[in-house]
UniProtKB/TrEMBL annotation:
Signal peptide: none annotated. The lineage of its organism: Bacteria, Bacillati, Bacillota, Bacilli, Bacillales. This is HTH-type transcriptional activator RhaR. The gene is rhaR_7. Residues 198-296 form the HTH araC/xylS-type domain. SMART domains: HTH_ARAC (SM00342). It comes from Paenibacillus konkukensis. PROSITE patterns: HTH_ARAC_FAMILY_2. The keyword Transcription applies. The keyword Transcription regulation applies. Keywords: DNA-binding, Transcription, Transcription regulation. InterPro entries: AraC-bd, Homeodomain-like_sf, HTH-like, HTH_AraC, RmlC-like_jellyroll, Tscrpt_reg_AraC-type_HTH. Gene3D superfamilies: Homeodomain-like (1.10.10.60), Jelly Rolls (2.60.120.10).
Amino acid sequence: MEKQLHSSQFIKEHSFPFWIRRFFHDHEHVPLLHGHDFVELVYVVRGEAQHVFEGHYYDIRSGDVFIINPGEVHTYSINPGKEIEIINCLFMPDLIQGNWLLDLGISQSMDYFYVHPFLDKRERFHRCLNLNGQDATRSLFLLETIIHEFDNRQPGFETLIRLQMVELLILLSRAYRQAEGQNGRESVRNSAKQLLVRRICGYLERYYDKKVSIPVLCELFNISSRQLNRIFKESLGMTVVDMIHRIRIERAKHLLLETDEKVITIAGRVGYEDPAFFSRLFHREVGCSPGKYRESS
């Protein structure tokens, strides 16, 4: 039975949804199998172990970096006599807001944040990003700088950490794209159009509970509304609004099964201000009401 961790256990300031620590784990001291409602970025500083993710085991080693999405279940398995040192970086998606990326002109430079974490799970961890050389040195330096800022909390530390996290995710995205090219994965599937669709879907997965409008997406990803809906129709057979509803309903199904929260609360948590509209949409998509879905499952 997995343990469910809540952001409030780590993140104490609503205005700055972030937490970071360095951990050492050995065979006798590993975290329980757990899920959580925040994003977790893990960097393996040294050692080796197995990452237990959604029931599968994946070897991890020094230089590996991966992201665990909200709702995903994981832990580690470490052989006797072995140990692993990791940096755990926990944050809510709205730590890095779209308008920030837009102002900085980097909305399409975040593939490791918006694309890789939403790949097929086995594909994603069989192709875990491993850093070495200058990439590893620079990424570790950034993470250690963030830890220093977080621990000392000097004036302006929140802004510096946000900027450093954006820098880190851009560096990881560069390494990710380079690794993709070396793996010979630059196929039609990863053409510019398909990659753009993946980026936008990743953005929607991160901010499903916010008010996401077509004009904001168009400005963020430098595309017209007509082009946006056309490429979604061609690639996925649905509109952007359909995709938003699908993501929200899937998240609502998870919350209905994993929590005891009322339907009206869950509606708000997945981005619907009108519980009646949420219930009608849920029935249309799933075939029963949210209450019936909870009971039958």
